């Protein structure tokens, strides 16, 4: 079927809305009409990393929409269902079987290869394959093909535009707190980078009654919103970040989360921890970071990575929706909606820090 998609043709080119051909759903696939898709840093990181020589690509991995059709082997999803789309996993490897689907051994092939697992294309243009199937969806398009493992059925009362980022960004930040750091009410949680992932982490920490919340970000508007949510806001441009955190937490934080991927910031996230504190990194950035091993070892600190909030989406996304319904996780306050033909303005606004979470709506 012919659909409109926001196509990337190289790291330096803007997205362009173009007609492409979406394959018919196979027996294990789900056809979804996209209502909204979140714009995530991972989309832009991937766009920047794909050489122009690889040709056209359709990205997008925070889709939400309505099921149009399902293949004969699909169960638990029917036409008319409202759904949130997330990452793919095989369901059979040791990681998937041990409740670690975000670390599926087949994750790259299923989420980042640009094609189906068998190598076939889901999207073509003028008879030529288009790099797609991103996170098993490529939801910068009017319609997408997904599979039962990355489709989460939600109540029809859910605002799909506001909830779309639960597929990645919001679940990453919230999951890093709720599934990995697991702070108690007497904990102190510091988030480095108050973007959509960082704010989701702050809201998640607040939802479990964390006593002391801190947000480090250079953008005044983001610091102001963090303060509205009950956090101490720190300006890295004018304050000694580590000293300010130690002063606000009585000697050091119990938990920190880096969303920036910046080596110097990760160093701060470790340095400001008190003894036996834990730091988690979720941001894509420089591949190498220098760590003070003496500080890490002698103080019993922990540093670990986290993908997709260590979440199993069929359980965790409904958990976040329940927190939202109870008023404990107001993710809708982070969202700014854009029409899909304004995708490049959304990219620019996100880069400028004038919005927290752009969501593209058809």
TrEMBL record:
Start and end residues of each Enoyl reductase (ER) domain: 10-360
Alphabetic keyword roster: Metal-binding, Oxidoreductase, Zinc
Presence of the UniProt keyword tRNA processing in the record: no
Domain of life: Bacteria
GO molecular function: oxidoreductase activity; zinc ion binding
Keyword Plastid: no
Pfam hit, one: ADH_N
Cofactor: Zn(2+)
The family this protein is said to belong to: Belongs to the zinc-containing alcohol dehydrogenase family.
Protein name: Aryl-alcohol dehydrogenase AdhB
